[in-house]
Amino acid sequence: MFKEDVGVMVYCRNACSLIGYSTRLNALGHYRLSLCSSATEVTELLEAGKRFRFLVFDGFDLGSYAQLLNELAWFEAINEFVVVADVNSMQRLEIFYWAKDIELPLRAVLQAPLRDYELALALGCGDASGGPTALYPGSFLVLDGAC
Questions:
Q1: Which residue, 54, 15, 65, 64, is CA-closest to 32?
Q2: SS (H, E, C) 67-83
Q3: Helix 62-74 vs helix 89-101: angle between axes, to the nearest 10 degrees?
Q4: Where are the beta strands (DSSP E) in 12-72?
Q5: What confidence tens digit (pLDDT) does each residue in 77-102 have?
Q6: Long-range contacts for 121-128 (Cβ within 8 Å, ≥24 apart)?
Q7: Using an 8 Å Cβ cutoff, are 1 and 17 in contact?
Q8: Which domains, and CATH codes, for the chain?
Q9: Rounded distance, CA 135 to CA 132, Å?
Q10: 147 with 17: CB under 8 angstroms?
Q11: Cα Rg for the chain, rounded, in angstroms?
């Protein structure tokens, strides 16, 4: 694990969703962000020696992106991975077992569409209860369903 919080990288092929991630992560206190819409962008940052506390991979599908995630982990520049996927409970377990088998530091598999409180819990910040330290006091949600 890195000694300092070096930021969060988000990989999402939808530019509109990247803007939403920026807002959500800023509300959670993450201000050092790298928003990437292509695997090439992600790889270039890692090749340049950039390091990240989290990689949030939106739109993950084990059959399509397992090799890519494994290649990104090879750089050893990301503390933990969080994937957002449209999966059922059995598929979620399959992703966790796959990550364990290849020793990928997978922190969470979040259900698409993403809910703000789940992102806050996965990244270990904020108060998902809607209390005074929540993303927005008295509210569980920031932008759910908005783009």
A1: 54
A2: HHHHHHHHCCCEEEEEE
A3: 30
A4: 33-36, 52-58
A5: 999 999 999 999 999 999 999 999 99
A6: 122/82, 123/8, 123/25, 123/28, 123/30, 123/54, 123/82, 125/28, 125/29, 125/30, 126/27, 126/28, 126/29
A7: no
A8: 8-122 (3.40.50.2300)
A9: 9
A10: yes
A11: 15
Strands (E), 94-147: 106-111
Centre a 10 Å sphere on the Cβ of residue 108 and count the other Cβ atoms it contains.
19
For 6-16, what is each residue's pLDDT tens digit? Answer: 799 999 999 99
Tell how strand 78-85 and strand 52-58 pair up: parallel
Helix, strand, coil percent content, the chain, rounded in steps of 5: 35, 20, 40
- Mean pLDDT, the chain, whole residue set: 84
The two structure tokens encoding residue 29 = 């206190």
Angstrom distance (rounded) from CA 96 to CA 109: 8
Task: Give the separation between CA 19 and CA 47, rounded to whole angstroms.
Answer: 24
Distances (CA, A) of 64 to 20, 125, 129: 24, 30, 35
